[in-house]
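TOPIC: backbone geometry
CONTENTS: sequence, structure tokens:
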Amino acid sequence: MGFIVKLLINALAVAITAYVLPNVEINSFLTAIIVALVLAVINMFIKPIVAILTLPINILTLGLLSFIINGLFILIASNLVDGFTVGGFLWAVIFSIVLSIVSSILGIFAK
């Protein structure tokens, strides 16, 4: 799949997840596309560095630190994108978990 198709699938997943969760709001589908793009950039450039730096702690916590890191990335995205608000750190972690589930399901249907 091309980058544009993956971006649109992730934007749809962001929109669906924001619709399902009560403390997450998104203004429009264009905002969902921008959020998906910001998350893609964060995952491309920042996540590998953070993953290497936190590897020992992540091993000790059996990977549970990844949920916290993903929640922080969601909070960063909500601060960068107007029209996307998350109701706190716990909701950002929940949003991250639900987003990956919805994105995986949509990815299966897209193939």
Q: What stands out?
A: The CA atoms of residues 13 and 103 lie 5 Å apart.
